[in-house]
Write a structure and sequence with these properties.
Elements (H helix, E strand, L loop, with lengths): L5 E4 L2 E2 L5 E4 L5 E4 L7 E10 L2 E11 L25 H18 L11 E2 L7 E9 L2 E7 L6 E3 L8 H14 L8 E9 L2 E8 L5 H14 L3 E6 L5 E5 L5 E3 L2 E3 L11 H14 L9 E5 L7 H5 L3 E6 L2 H11 L4 E5 L9 H4 L4 E4 L7 H9 L4 E6 L2 H13 L3 E9 L8 E7 L1
Parallel strand pairs: 4-6, 7-22, 12-13, 17-18, 17-20, 18-19, 20-21
Antiparallel strand pairs: 1-5, 2-3, 3-4, 5-6, 8-9, 8-11, 9-10, 11-12, 13-14, 15-16, 21-23, 22-23
């Protein structure tokens, strides 16, 4: 049985952005939409971890750090968790997430650099959920801890060019026989127009393909790709090859490609990575890059040294290889989760740079900890897996030279960071 409803004092903000109070027996109580120091009325309703999730009934004593949320969807939409928190307190909390992750890994008093925060309205990638219900199509983000889709007509974090596509996309989706109930849409705003990857739960008809081509022309998209469920994407309409400039190098990314969420965030990550390299690299220096993707870090690294770039995803590796032709870059297609590099393969590198996915780089960490690289630069999108992976480097004798928090996903609980490790 859940504890009874009552009054609670919020002690801190947890890693997911919820306020955390304590039940009478000391178990944690997670209450979304609250801030440290507030006295609230709440009703526990479901187990969560070692404690309880609770519904906020009212704020009896608000925090002086509480502000008005700028988005009308805040509270329902699960994209943002902390729009109600004053920015100075919010960014201090985000920097604290990075500090806590490194302390848990054994690095006490790590040097945390000033946070690099992206502006509102600058996110150039949208990963949207789609749901058809009662003849109407909803397109937006899920409610927090729910499969229900909040229908968006505005968004304060996305680039206006992406927001402007939501309504016409909803219109064309309503006409598609291929969308029976659920789907998803990834929109990347590139240099020469938006790139759409649409996934539906049924096959496209001829009429569907025509409708999507008309949508691409009307909204001046560079490309529309489609897949049924988790199948490989296929092209539907190509008005021009999609292109993004990565450190001045034109790259044609695959459909739904992972890109850094904002240009500001990308520039901050690149700057922190380059600053983490040894200051004087010999002419024949070799940098090993793991999880290279389409080359966000590869191309700026190649200005400092020869780069051996490893990427496990077929389409991303092929895209990077095409763009890297003629440069000091060797692209190796290799799944590092199944076939991690050995310490012997890593030895001899002047530096190792890795930008693993949300799950981290656990299979690769033993070799990284055992190799003789003087510098390892870890780009993280998940403090929890960073902490786990960094523990291996601590055991291997590495120390932290610098740790830079990067807030690309403003008002969310998500934090990216660049941590420079040295022997």
């Amino acid at each position: 049985m859940p504890p009874s409803a009552g009054e609670f004092r919020i002690e801190r903000i947890g890693a997911d952005g919820d306020g955390i109070a304590a039940c009478a027996d000391g178990a944690p109580l997670y209450i979304a939409g609250t801030l440290p120091g507030e006295i609230v009325s709440a009703r526990p309703f479901a187990p969560r971890g070692e404690g309880w999730a609770a519904e906020l009934l009212g704020i009896l004593k608000p925090s002086s750090e509480r502000v008005s949320a700028p988005c009308p969807h805040f509270g329902a939409c699960g994209g943002c968790a902390l729009q109600h928190w004053r920015n100075d307190a919010y960014v201090a909390w985000k920097s604290g997430l990075l500090r806590a992750a490194l302390v848990r890994a054994g690095f006490f008093d790590p040097p945390i650099m000033p946070i690099a925060q992206s502006s509102a309205g600058r996110r150039r990638r949208a990963d949207l959920a789609i749901h058809r219900v009662a003849g109407r199509v909803r397109i937006g983000l899920h409610r927090r801890r729910s499969s229900d889709v909040v229908d968006l007509d505005s968004c304060v974090v996305l680039e206006p060019g992406l927001v402007a596509l939501i309504a016409p996309l909803r219109g064309v989706l309503a006409r598609l026989a291929a969308l029976r109930r659920n789907g998803s849409a990834i929109l990347n705003l590139l240099e020469n127009g938006a790139d759409l990857l649409l996934r539906t739960d049924a096959g496209l008809t001829t009429a569907d393909r025509t409708a999507l081509a008309e949508f691409a022309i009307a909204c001046d998209l560079s490309r529309v790709s489609w897949a049924c469920g988790s199948d490989m994407p296929e092209p539907v309409c190509l008005l021009r090859p999609p292109m993004i400039a990565l450190s001045g190098v034109p790259v044609s990314p695959p459909p739904g490609a992972f890109l850094q969420a904002t240009l500001e965030g990308q520039e901050a990550i690149v700057a922190a990575v380059l600053a983490g390299l040894p200051h004087a690299l010999p002419a024949r220096a070799r940098v090993v890059e793991l999880f290279a993707g389409c080359g966000t870090l590869t191309f700026p690294l190649s200005a400092r040294a020869r780069v051996f770039a490893y990427e496990g995803e077929d389409a991303a590796a092929a895209s990077l290889r095409r763009a890297a032709a003629g440069r000091r870059i060797e692209v190796i297609h290799r799944d590092l989760s199944r076939q991690p590099l050995t310490a012997e393969e890593l030895n001899g590198a002047a530096a190792i740079v890795l930008d693993p996915p949300h799950a981290g780089a656990a299979p690769q960490m033993a070799a990284l900890a055992a190799c003789r690289a003087a510098r390892i630069v870890y780009v993280s999108c998940n403090p929890a897996t960073l902490s786990r992976d960094a523990r291996s480097l601590h055991a291997g004798g590495y120390r932290v030279l610098a740790a830079t928090p990067v807030d690309q996903f403003r008002w969310s609980s998500q934090l990216e960071s660049v941590v420079v490790f040295a022997r």
